[in-house]
Amino acid sequence: MLIIEIFLFIPLVFICYLISTGIHESGHGFFVKFTNNKLIELRLGRGRRNEYLFKIGDLEVKKLFFLSGSRALWSFNTWDNFKREGVLISLGGCIANFLTFIVSLPIGLFFRFLSIEIGAYFFLVLAVISAFQMFVNLLPIQGFDGGQVIKYSSNPKEVLIRKQIEFNKYYEEEN
C-alpha cells in the first residue's frame, strides 16, 4: 500500500507544481492588465516564441513545460506610477499563490475529513507547494519577485527605463 502511495505522490507533486507555477505567472499577468500595462509574454516552461502545447487565456504552456523558465514579461505603458505598479505586478504571483493556499488548504482538510484521500492529497499538496513557492519568490534576490520589488521601489525612473530598453533589445535577439 505504501509503494502505491509513493508512486501516486510523485506525479501529484509534479502536477501540483505545474498548476501552482501557472497560477503564479497568471497572477503577474492579472496585475499587468489590472494596472493597464502591456503584457508581452506569459509562459510556463521553455520553448520558442509562439510554439506551445496549448494556451489557457494568455498563458502559453511550452513543449518543455517541466523545465524552469516560466515567466511573465511586461512593460509599462506610462511611467506615471511606475513604483506602485511595478511593486504590485511583482507581488502579483505571490498574491495568487497566497490565495491558492488559502483556498486549497480548507478544501484539502475537508476532503480528508470525508476520507476522500486523493482529493485531500491533491489540495493539501497544492497548498503546501503554493506556500513554498510564495515564500521562495519573496526572497530579496535578483530574478525573484522579492528582488523585483526592491528594484522598483529603490531605483529612479531613468535607470528602469534604461534597463527596460536593454532588456527589450536582448528579448528581440533571443526570439
What topology emerges from the helices and strands here?
Layout: H1 2-34, E1 38-44, E2 54-56, E3 59-61, E4 71-75, H2 82-113, H3 117-137, H4 145-154, H5 157-174
Parallel strand pairs: 1-3
Antiparallel strand pairs: 1-4, 2-3
Helix pairs in contact: 1-2, 1-3, 2-3, 2-4
Characteristic key phrases:
alpha+beta, four-stranded mixed β-sheet, 4 strands, globular
Give an account of the 3D structure:
The protein has 175 residues and is an alpha+beta fold. The chain has one domain (2-174). It is 65% helix and 10% strand. It contains 5 helices and 4 strands. The chain has a 4-stranded mixed beta sheet with strand order 2-3-1-4, with helices on one face. Strand 2 (54-56) and strand 3 form a beta hairpin.
Task: Give a summary of the structure in a few sentences.
The chain has about 180 residues and is an alpha+beta fold. The protein contains 5 helices and 4 strands; from the N terminus they run H-E-E-E-E-H-H-H-H. Strand 2 (about 55) and strand 3 (about 60) form a beta hairpin.
What is the radius of gyration computed over CA atoms, rounded to a whole number of angstroms?
18 Å
N-C termini distance: 48 Å
Helix content: 55-70%
Structural class by sheet pairing and helices: alpha+beta
Strand content: 5-15%
Please indicate the count of domains: 1
Number of strands: 4
Would you tell me the overall average pLDDT? 88
